[in-house]
Protein 1
Amino acid sequence: MNIAPQLLEKYNVPVPRYTSYPPANHFDEQVTGAEMLELIRSSNNWAPDHIGFYIHIPFCRKICFYCGCNACTLKSTSEVTRYVEALKQEIRLVAKALNRSRKVTQIHFGGGTPNSIPAEMLEEIVRLISSSAASSWLRCRSIISERRMRSTTPSRANISWGSKGLMM
Ligand code: SF4
């Protein structure tokens, strides 16, 4: 491969991980809960007004030595239950701030390893989003989940959500 030395020099610098937007170096703990809700409300005036939900499941059975994600070892079922309950509270809070005429076009489960927790819990989360929504929210085109292949069995492979399927 023939790469111009100027390009190599230009891009040979440390950069933030770009797996999320905004990238982690733009996260700011100074933003309060009230400010966050106000930002969510103000997004009701944006165009296009489609909504994408990112649901973070931080648990992994074992932490890989190269991991740069916000992940922790799965220790107990009660810890997972507490996390999922908190997640559901946050979904209810966010749903109240969102204009119901908006469409949810994508739900993405990331982690961590989303399929390290019981599939029923993920189903509960999808059902909650569905039940918090007006019918116009249900035109979701895509439900995606990151996964650990070794933990995927045919019985865990599909979670139904109306006529759609969540591939785990
Ligand atoms: S599976 Fe992914 S998120 Fe989990 S520890 Fe390994 S690299 Fe990190």
Note: The first helix runs from residue 5 to 11.
Protein 2
Amino acid sequence: MTGFDTTRPNIARVYDYWLGGKDNFAVDRELARTMTEVNAGIPAMARANRDFIAAAVRKVAEAGVEQFLDLGAGLPTSPAVHEAARAVNPDARVVYVDSDPVVVSHASALLATKPASTHSKATSPNRTRFSPTRWCRRRSTGPGQRA
Ligand SMILES: C[S@@+](CC[C@H](N)C(=O)[O-])C[C@H]1O[C@@H](n2cnc3c(N)ncnc32)[C@H](O)[C@@H]1O
């Protein structure tokens, strides 16, 4: 696992800045602003992306999915996947995966008692401790009931 570098921009922290978060540094804000000069719509797109994720998670949770694998999760933001899922099903479980040790460090601290969090690259899922095929089980019974 690499160290924590505040002298180089980090895309998870840049994204956090666009979302109005506090987990970013001057170097991240500088890159975020430079990119926004090129396309002023980026922050709105980031927010729309988060809104879509929350809506999609709610939708599939309502359809009975109770286990979620968030690959490339990014820094914790609200609503996080587990918050959206648990608004529908309080027993929903979420595993967050990210290749960035900064993200994993934050997630481990902020989500310590909630979902699991693991350091892995989506391009090497066989190294992810939780197999997606095992975690994407769909219940055959209705919401609120265990299959
Ligand atoms: C811009 S954030 C997006 C966060 C969230 N998924 C969203 O859409 O709001 C992208 C995250 O993906 C992570 N990431 C990029 N490539 C990855 C890979 N190959 N495996 C796991 N995580 C990856 C980055 O570290 C970063 O935290």
Note: The longest strand covers residues 93-98.
